[in-house]
Amino acid sequence: MDWQNKEVDDIDAFIRELPDAAWADGLKKAISNLEDARGNRDTIRAIVARRSEEIVGGAVFEPPMPPGEAHVHFVSVSDEARRRGVARSLFNSVREITSRDVRSLGWESFAIAAWPESPEGEAFLRSLGFEQDAPFWQLEVPLR
Q1: Residue 92 to residues 35, 42, 54, 97, 99: CA-CA distances in angstroms?
Q2: Could you tell me the domains of the chain?
Q3: What global pTM score does this model have?
Q4: CA–CA separation, 77 vs 83, rounded Å?
């Protein structure tokens, strides 16, 4: 692995650091859409994947809320980072962070919901264990 994932502490700084590239536009749009829908950025979380100082991917998600479902709104990686495990590691980081949060609430399980935008996205989610539950895809995560 030649990159590292890190949870973002400052959404504004994350947006400013994102490159001016088509793959990053979806991350910016997801944050903007969530802010418009929620009226603030309080529930928005993000993870950034970096190779050295270069951002090569990111994920935008919301932590679990009753009834225990976290929402992954957008995951994207640069063209150079595709098919190298970056997106998979971003999803794993979302699952780890969410698991930590859910354990602190005393829950025994949670689900991660995602909305793929392409057949490739659907195949990728299927490879992670997600199942289609129209209109989204869902992964049940038991906590042991």
Answers
A1: 24, 22, 20, 9, 10
A2: 4-142 (3.40.630.30)
A3: 0.88
A4: 9
